[in-house]
Amino acid sequence: MDTVYNVSPSPHVRDNITTQKIMGAVVLSLIPASVAGVILYGMHALLVLVISVASSVLSEYVFEKITKRPVTVYDLSAVVTGLLIGLNMPPEVPLFIPVLGSVFGIIVVKQLFGGIGQNFMNPALGARCFLIISFSSQMTDFAVKGGIMASSAAAMDAVSSATPLAALKTGAAYPLGDLFLGTTLGTIGETSALALLIGAVFLLCIRVIDLRIPLSYIGTFFVLVLITAFIRGYEAPFYYTLCEIFAGGLMLGAWFMATDYASSPMTTKGQLIYGVCLGILTFLFRMVSKSNEGVSYAIIFMNCLTPMIEQFTRPLAFGIKREKEAKHE
Amino acid sequence: MRLKTFKGGIHPKDMKEISMDQPITTLAPGKEMVYLLSQHIGAPAKPVVKKGDQVIIGQMIAEAGGFVSAPVYASVSGTVKGIEKRKNALGDAVDAIIVENDGLDTEKEYNTAALDSLDKEGIIKRIQEAGIVGMGGAGFPTHVKLSPKEPGRIDHIIVNGSECEPYLTSDYRCMLEHSDDLVGGLECILKIFPGAKGVIGIENNKPLAIQKMQEAVKGHDRISVAVLKTKYPEGSERSLIYAVTGREVNSSMLPADAGCIVNNVDTVIAVYEAVIKGRPLMHRIFTVSGDAVNNPKNYDVRIGMSYQDIINEAGGFRSAPEKLISGGPMMGFALFGLDVPVTKTSGAITCFLKDPVSAAKETPCIKCGRCVRGCPAHLMPCDLSDLAENGAKEAFAERFGMECVECGSCSYTCPARRPLASNIKAMRRTLLAERRK
């Protein structure tokens, strides 16, 4: 008998990238922010992160076992979701809250819609918004008891112990250095712009994300805030705008959650539209409606519009002209 | 200067270093030569010899079966053993003329000609008689390609020297070793189209070939070299035309509709041999590469030789391969075995010790959009693949599924290892078959 060779349709080579490697890279990129969170807010923050990741992975595993689907926890996407949920928690949050969030995010937002790639909404943000509505007081209590912020917070007066966003609403600027390093109050992972940017640069370098969504998002938001700051006659409008960029969840949201593959458009044009709309919505929520959840609501709102954006920005095939152009010839 | 290129595409490892630096070696033909009657697009050739006939090198053994067809010539001297079914690279049993090589290499005398003495019709006739077809893989008879409806509209004769397929280096070696023949062949074609200019497109990962061809085209006013960005599939006809001229060609157009005729390097050299030297198409340059072969390099092989003989002559396998590919890994066909003859369109065999595809496990789409950005036809392969799997024919066609060039970039780049290209290809086959009815 002749030797039997493998036969399959072309192509016969594949790129090295896999879903697991992509998700692993996202986890790595969130390590600086996680470390910063633990340094800033203490060991309870670490516990929150660990519990969030563990409960996410467990929710996915149990759901898939019960529904007799292939177990997908090894693709690490549940780890990413869990970590993002943890990073979105206040430092001293009671532990049942992130667990509840993970169960909701993984089972309701992700698995019930078909699992990885099928969720129309970012599971971590879905979970966060669910928790904000259900446990608003616990979710907005940014008190710290550990880490380097515990000592400096005690020294702070009552006014500055509010979150930077709350302070910025008055139109006054906030120390930009604190915002950049993260020595402010907020959720575990959102405060240190520096740590988040390190992770974002890593993801950009290995091409897991590209600049289209984050840049169009932040850029649009920047321009709108700058114009408003001028119109409202704020002192140092440019400095104020930079504060708005680095305060709250914008850095975490723009680089790590708006870029979520499943819930953002795939088309190039669609991504730009998505980013610009995110910038406009975040601006409206933060600067006009004075809501506290600008970034989260903007992203989940746009998640819902993603299929429509994709539909309208579907590219024409190479060599095919739009009817109007074709008639010209 | 900005490099000429197209939008989309991928960057697979080119793996050309394995075979690119060794000169072309001529291989002795095997004992038994198999000439398929259908080595081209169009009607199969009709045998003009019968069992027991003596043939010599350069003798026609099958005539063209129509205008869109091409004759086949004996590349060895010997005896016709019979006309029977043999397997082609795709595994189909097709008609073939079998010739037993007597090893004497008795060769016919050829009518040489000077280009100045030939007119347009004369050049096309010599190309047609030589049985030249697109040797890059498509196999479209070259004389048909060179006889467009409106010859006056042709303003670009493009030689495809991009060789974007990984592992393959035959065009590269030809450009280095036969640069004058290539320019000579292009001059022959340019004489058919007095209003056209000749462009040799080469990717910038082949600096030596670019240099060599730039020297070779000196003094030829109508010929220039275009340096292209190294990207797969730069050498796909539509991408190449766009890179060189900025014109877009879709699936319902011919390159001639955009004023272009594209020819492969080996084809243009064959044109030179046919028009000037009078030699019909009987040999080609063939890359043997991959991690399973002992002496990966380019060989000058006679058409009709079996892949098995080539591998034996080329030093055999280092170790038993798991996968054999006729052509390169992006668009080549996986072979069932080595008992397959070289045809006018077979350019390479790539042998892998390990098959990187069979081990891959398909997982759900994560909507990362890598396939969308890699698609040179600007499609959304992930969606088309779903539509194909669900049998949604209308939606598939509406979303331009028929514009796919089957380059395989989507499957290559998919982190979920989804067989996007093969799903789309299967649906295209179904729709094309329905349209033909």
Main traits of this protein?
heterodimer; A: 329 residues; mainly alpha; B: 437 residues; alpha/beta; Rossmann fold; 3 domains; 6-stranded mixed beta sheet; 4-stranded antiparallel beta sheet; 13 helices; 17 strands; 19% strand; globular
Write the layout of secondary structure elements.
The complex is a heterodimer of chains A (329) and B (437).
Chain A: H1 19-41, H2 43-66, H3 77-87, H4 96-110, H5 123-134, H6 136-139, H7 147-155, H8 164-168, H9 176-181, H10 193-205, H11 212-231, H12 237-246, H13 250-257, H14 268-288, H15 294-313, H16 323-328
Chain B: E1 25-26, E2 32-36, E3 46-47, E4 54-55, E5 60-63, E6 72-73, E7 78-87, E8 93-101, H1 120-129, H2 142-145, E9 156-161, H3 170-177, H4 179-192, E10 197-203, H5 207-216, E11 223-228, H6 237-245, E12 260-264, H7 265-275, E13 283-289, E14 297-302, H8 307-313, E15 323-326, E16 333-334, E17 348-352, H9 370-374, H10 381-389, H11 393-398, H12 409-413, H13 420-436
Parallel strand pairs in B: 1-14, 9-10, 9-12, 10-11, 13-17
Antiparallel strand pairs in B: 2-8, 3-5, 4-7, 5-6, 7-8, 13-14, 15-16, 15-17
Helix pairs in contact in B: 1-4, 3-5, 4-7, 10-13
